[in-house]
Amino acid sequence: MSQKRKLQRARHAAKEEEKGKNIVKWIFGCLVALAVIYMVYIVITMS
């Protein structure tokens, strides 16, 4: 495999890894937000 192709593969792999990390951050953030909303809902309904 040529050097140019290896470089392209490495660059693409780095981009995919960054996208994956970004998606994980978004999912985690959404779960935290839903947990906070649920906690507020429970507090309001219990009182």
Task: Tell me about this structure.
- By secondary structure, this protein is an all-alpha fold.
- It is built from 1 helix and no strands.
- It has one helix at 3-46.
- It is rod-shaped.
- The relative contact order is 0.07.
- What separation lies between the terminal Cα atoms? 68 Å
Report the sheet-strand fraction: under 5%
> How large, in whole angstroms, is the Cα Rg?
20 Å
Extract low-pLDDT stretches.
none
Write the H/E string, N to C.
H
Number of helices: 1
The structure class reads mainly alpha
Mean pLDDT: 95
> Biggest sheet: strands, sense, closure?
none
Helix percent band: over 70%
Total strands: the figure is 0
* Oligomerization category of the chains in this entry: single chain
Primary descriptors:
rod-shaped, mainly alpha, single chain
Topology diagram in text:
Elements: H1 3-46
How would you summarize what this structure contains?
This protein is an all-alpha fold and 47 residues long. It is built from 1 helix and no strands.
